[in-house]
Protein 1
Amino acid sequence: MTAKPADRLKDNFIDEVRTQANGHWEAILRQLAIPTHRQEGQYPNCGGKTRYRFDDKEGRGTYFCSQYLTVR
């Protein structure tokens, strides 16, 4: 199955945004009032008190949520 031109454009846009944001996520998230604390704290999505930790692996803006035990 071949991706539609619009899907390729969307994927390219997302890749470009990720590339440009790499290494700048902490500042970007602060501007959006999203916590960037490195110790576990309140998760901005569900409000869990000790579920969320911003880890920013390789400058990619990654975080950890223990509710789902995943790294995003």
Note: The radius of gyration is 15 Å.
Protein 2
Amino acid sequence: MGTLVSLISALASGEAMAALQRARITAIIYGFAAIFALCGVGFLIGAAYIWLAARYGPLATSLGFGIGFLVLAGLIIVIHKLTASARAKRRVRRRQADMTAVGVTAALALLPALARSRGGLAAIAAPALAVVAYAIYRENTRPPPPRQGPEH
């Protein structure tokens, strides 16, 4: 309840609006910095082109820069494709964790109502017993691990 009171008082005092204003100004400043950084990189690439064109000629330099940028684009795509499966697995694990958290929260929210109702204890205990029984069954039906060491 205390966090709700502090949130309401922060909104009433205008602190939230000030934080939003600071965040907007920061985003604008970082946007300008990114634009200037990209311009700087562009001029450095242009300077490298001019220097290499004077040394090797404009055609060879243009071909070199074109091939270099195509290789960079290809590397980016290959790296993206190689990491796609790891990102998908991470999303699945996160989704499973979220669904588990939602399920546990829902079960804990329903627990008092189930405990008060008729047969509520059985409704709570039956799934837990089923999980334990399944774990025991799985443990006892696994094949034994292969033997290690010299055979006689």
Note: The chain has a mean pLDDT of 83.
Protein 3
Amino acid sequence: MEFEVTHPFHPWRGQRFVLSTRKQNWGEDRVMFYDAEGRLRSLLASWTDVAGPDVFIQVAAGRSFVRPDDLATLAALIAQIERSHGG
């Protein structure tokens, strides 16, 4: 099975690779493949077409690359840092 790199800012965008395996690695859904030099590489599965279209990306249509739940997590982290520094 082949997959294509679809992340808009990745230097391999548009390139196709043969999928070696897909697994949870470092707590992330990743695809594993061999590059042109035969080195084993991995990418986030969400940066490829392996998982199918991402509904958020489709709806955002390039207007936002940050998910609302990620923004809420960031805001909570900032608040925690402020509290720990007396802010």
Note: Strands lie at 2-4, 16-25, 28-34, 40-44.
Protein 4
Amino acid sequence: MQMGEVIRQRRRDLGMSQSDLAQAAGVDARQIRRYETGDQQPLLTVAMAIADALQISVTELAGRPSHRVNVTGDWWASWQTSRGGEQKIATQPVQMRQEGDKVFIASTRRGLSEEEGGYMWSGELRLWDNEILTGWYAAEDGSIRSKGTMYLVLHPHGVYMEGRWVGLGYDDSIMTGWASMGKTSEDSEAAMTRLLKGEASRQ
């Protein structure tokens, strides 16, 4: 793919106009038009500014694939939690939307009933080196104050993730537990089972 096509396609994917991109990159909008039509090629410093504005690398801007993992789509998340001293595993559907190295995540249904402490939440993650996701989450339900952090390791084939969460519980206590995600509820729950078995074998 030629650079002009990359600029145009990525700009549209991000919902940016040529003027938006020009302003973000600090160039004239007429230049963006020239780059997209292939009439001109940007200088390296300008290409770097455009790549930053488009949230891609200069290599990707030049039309070379990055082999970057893309986690956009529907996933299932499983969380090890407890309430009243009783362990619970909550599994719920979530949606992820990746923009460069940023990943926006939100639950689409509770994993536990409200009576059991289930709630809706959203957060933001960052993808590091195509294998690690770190970030935060916060409850969307107004009456619940839960919020915290997530650390997830992505399987090389991108089928599931495993890690931990640390956060503020419903009673304002600091809690932690295993976390897993998969493309299906079965994948997520299988990953959680492996984490729990591994923990049991270390005790």
Note: The first strand starts at residue 73 and ends at 83.
